[in-house]
């Protein structure tokens, strides 16, 4: 499969948020009908608006920001569900980390590469740029300038010798780094299959250099049997090596299903790995951490996700409940006319493109209620009474999923695209 910008973005995020033309037409027809429940929802939405201003240099401020920090301080987990590629997102996450002082920042990257980034970020931007230079092409998303700056600033705001930046996800770009970390620890029995794994990884990147098709890279096109062979020849790996092998295996299984067009299976495999990684880290922690999560919106929703799986966001809500605590789930998307960065896999650059999340998430009926001169933050919890089971059975499932799955939504006014380093 030839992976273009849009299909690659869908694979990386695990959630296609863009509306199709028929879906957009249906939304327009529903809005025209203006059922009573929608008028009630719009009334509650309009009453609950709070302004929030995001300055890329000075950070966020305003009544919406003060409310968001207050809500975040009540929660064990703050689940920040983003639209990738907005320059305003890392500004918000950096400010939240400084205000909430969580024990961990947990990201949509693999556990082993998160360990690398935690170490590199201790050296600030110099440490991160050196890491990216030494281990190309760098992890997905975090070679955007604003995202890298956020990592450096958050790590400085959360000092300590223990690891403060965690990851839970699969790995799509850093297979060569993961394999290099395995080589010094591998027993003689695993030397041959590990050599075959490394050769396949290098060959994949060579094919990509010739084709500019990201589907040729090892993490997308590789054979899971190569990792399974290493695991069979290495019966008792140390914990770090075991984590790397499991990351590689589940990455290849996820993307093999995607390339085979088994999209539900792909998302389910990935969600299971995300949840399993969280459970392992949660159980291993001597003191259960307060954590700030930063993932794509589809991963942070409470309940069934946009890809019809139960993802990490739902597990956070249930884990908090088991501890007698709460999780707070925030959706952050561009407002009308917003821009975002999208990864171009042929040139390995980030392109400035229009954002289309409003239609993709079924939120178009509310767009005209957004504040004109600031970003709009809305508490969704009071709106749930307008979307009971009898309503949601007959209306747009996307809109219902947002209202019930997130506690608040922030529409970023005038969103701008992040830029590459």
Model description:
By secondary structure, the protein is of the alpha/beta class. It contains 19 helices and eleven strands. Strand 1 (49-55) and strand 2 form a beta hairpin. Helix 6 crosses helix 7 (124-134) and helix 12 (224-233) packs antiparallel against helix 13 (239-259). The longest helix is centred in the middle third of the chain and has 22 residues, at 263-284.
Biggest β-sheet, characterized?
A: 9 strands, mixed
Radius of gyration from the alpha-carbon trace, in angstroms: 21 Å
What is the beta-strand fraction? 5-15%
* Shape call: globular
Q: Which regions are unreliable across 5 or more consecutive residues at pLDDT < 50?
A: 15-25
Written as H for each helix and E for each strand, in order along the chain, the element string is HHHEEHEHEHHHEHHHHHHEHHEEEHEHHE
Q: What is the structural class?
A: alpha/beta
Share of helical residues? 40-55%
Give the count of helical stretches.
19
| Total E-strand runs | 11
CA distance, first residue to last residue: 29 Å
Spatially, the strands of the biggest sheet line up as 2-1-10-11-7-3-6-4-5
Query: Average pLDDT, to the nearest integer?
Result: 91
